[in-house]
Design goal:
Chain lengths: 165, 381
């Protein structure tokens, strides 16, 4: 499992729940979890329905160390303050628990946040948080040779269809 | 504002639930002395422990991270030792719902301020008379005429702006509560009870609402202010089953009062949306049925099984835990792009994909273009 306090600026990518859901729906979760430095917060983990094959797969990946668990450190004033700001700051951010925890950890530790939610992405951009989207990870799978170019294209189309539903 | 440590928050939440340090420590899987150290700040709390505490203490993560004291409508009431842990959890749930309503007002732009008319019962010596008269005034104000009100929840939501949430509390001592933070008010109903009883608890709590301005009222067996409880019971009975409405229904059904049968009581109960027992009590109260005959009916009747045989609505029908207006506010907030899909799912207490389905159904019903029609990074993304 990834260290809770990975070095600042390391390549850790914190996944939002919908990213896991999209990859699961196009049967690419197993491939996704073979990419390095992926992590979730406990809040994101809790956002996945239980029981469900996706939640089971995520639990197994956490147990096997394929997926890291990175949470807001309760004793770290900066992370706590960022969490409160993202969760219910002056601008009433409107973010969910998983997004707020992921973004405060990403912001404080220099990690990357992976989300497709417009609201979350807007907030992340204004906070200067490094961002990725589902299509970036899909391209990485292809670049790493974990899926074929054909599979890359079909998955891209399938996720786009899911987004239009 | 002075910063409140997480340990202090843990102690506060534990105390509001009426749990001892030993009980909480056992649930957390640590020694009592360890929890004591956490509460005083002598020992650090790990993220894993904190997440477990959110479940044990029924408080969201942000409660423990918030700076300064958060006003709670239950602060004084929860010190009362007569309130058991299940009811305390329900009350904390109601406190959380009011906080969510405040957030949803900001996100959706829809305000839910109840149009409550306030009455005083101090001048009334007899709470039964006060309950009857005030119920009649309320029925007139809400233009209910002499019709039965089988869906009290809908009436309170649409005509009064008072939202009712459902919460499942299996322990039998808690039936409902009303709370107001001065701007918003809400009723919480224990949905573990059958629908007929739930439908009686709703106007009972509404009765409390029209005679108290702010604060909280909790409905517990053995925890009653006799005068106010008698008033609320009389209010609920007259709001749901006023004499003229009952007379009207009896006449239309061509029921001859002395020979009334248990099936006819069941039909009336179904028509008025109350339990078989509540209707029987009401008919006895108005001397439509003699006490002796009512006792015989009660002894032999099997209301749930017989309702099914007669094709009447199942009195154990589910009571949706979230009010329609609350759902509408959450969908509107998401539609406006004010909240993420994840936050929508939190408000709707469901998974993210299901939350989107609820939103899409709402968007279709109000004929708006769903957020997914806004392009690749639409609010629905």
């Amino acid at each position: 499992m990834l260290s809770l306090r990975a070095a600042r600026g390391s390549g850790v990518r914190l996944l939002d729940a919908m990213i896991l859901i999209y990859f699961s729906k196009v049967d690419l979760l197993e491939a996704l979890l073979r990419l390095p430095d992926l992590a979730v917060t406990t809040s994101v983990r809790n956002e996945l329905r239980r029981p469900s094959p996706l939640r089971d797969a995520v639990e197994a990946a956490l147990a096997d160390g394929l997926l890291g668990l990175c949470d807001v450190d309760p004793e770290d004033g900066t992370e706590r303050t960022l969490y409160i700001m993202y969760r219910d700051g002056d601008g009433f951010s409107g973010l969910g628990e998983g997004e707020a925890t992921s973004m405060s950890v990403a912001c404080a530790r220099g990690f990357t946040f992976v989300s497709h939610d417009r609201k979350a992405r807007e907030t992340a951009v204004s906070a200067g948080i490094k961002l990725l989207d589902w299509d970036d990870l899909l391209a990485e799978l292809s670049d790493q040779g974990l899926i074929t170019a054909k599979r890359h294209e079909s998955a891209k189309q399938a996720i786009r269809r899911l987004l239009k539903e | 504002m002075a910063e409140t440590g997480i340990g202090e928050r843990v102690a506060e939440a534990r105390s509001q639930l009426g749990l001892t340090q030993a009980e909480t420590a056992e649930k957390l899987g640590v020694a009592r002395s360890t929890l004591a150290e956490m509460e005083t700040g002598a020992r650090k709390i790990t993220a894993d422990e904190l997440y477990r505490l959110t479940e044990i203490l029924s408080r969201p993560l942000q409660y423990f991270f918030s700076v300064g004291k958060r006003a709670s409508i239950f602060s004084f009431r929860l010190k009362d030792e007569e309130i058991g842990e299940p009811a305390r959890r329900s009350l904390i749930g109601l406190d959380n719902r009011l906080a969510e309503l405040a957030a949803l007002e900001r996100f959706s732009g829809i305000l839910v301020r109840p149009r409550l008319k306030q009455y005083s019962i101090e001048g009334w010596k007899n709470p039964d008379v006060a309950g009857r008269n005030i119920a009649m005034m309320e029925r007139a104000r809400l233009q209910l005429g002499v019709s039965p009100v089988p869906n009290v929840r809908e009436v309170l939501e649409q005509r009064v702006g008072l939202l009712a949430f459902g919460d499942y509390t299996p322990a039998g001592d808690f039936s409902g509560a009303f709370a107001s933070d001065g701007e918003r008010s809400a009723i919480l109903i224990n949905v573990a009870h059958i629908k007929g009883r739930v439908n009686f608890t709703l106007p009972h709590e509404y009765g409390h609402a029209v005679v108290m301005k702010n604060g909280v009222h909790i409905e517990l067996r053995g925890y009653v202010d006799a005068h106010e409880e008698r008033f609320a019971d009389a209010f609920a009975a007259n709001f749901l089953m006023p004499l003229d409405a009952l007379e009207d229904a009896l006449e239309r059904a061509s029921v001859s009062p002395p020979e009334i049968t248990s099936d006819q009581v069941l039909f009336l109960a179904s028509q008025f949306g109350v339990s078989f027992e509540a209707m029987l009590n009401r008919l006895t109260h108005f001397n439509v049925i003699e006490t002796k005959h009512a006792r015989e009916i009660k002894k032999t009747a099997k209301p749930v099984a017989r309702s099914r045989e007669l094709g009447l609505p199942d009195p154990r029908d589910e009571f949706d835990s979230l009010p329609q207006t609350y759902r509408r506010m959450a969908c509107m907030a998401f539609h406006k792009g004010s909240i993420s899909r994840s936050r929508l799912a939190e408000f709707l207490r469901t998974a993210q994909d299901e939350a989107y389905d609820i939103y899409a159904a709402w968007a279709a019903s109000v004929d708006v273009v769903s957020a997914s029609g806004k392009g690749k990074r639409g609010a629905a993304a």
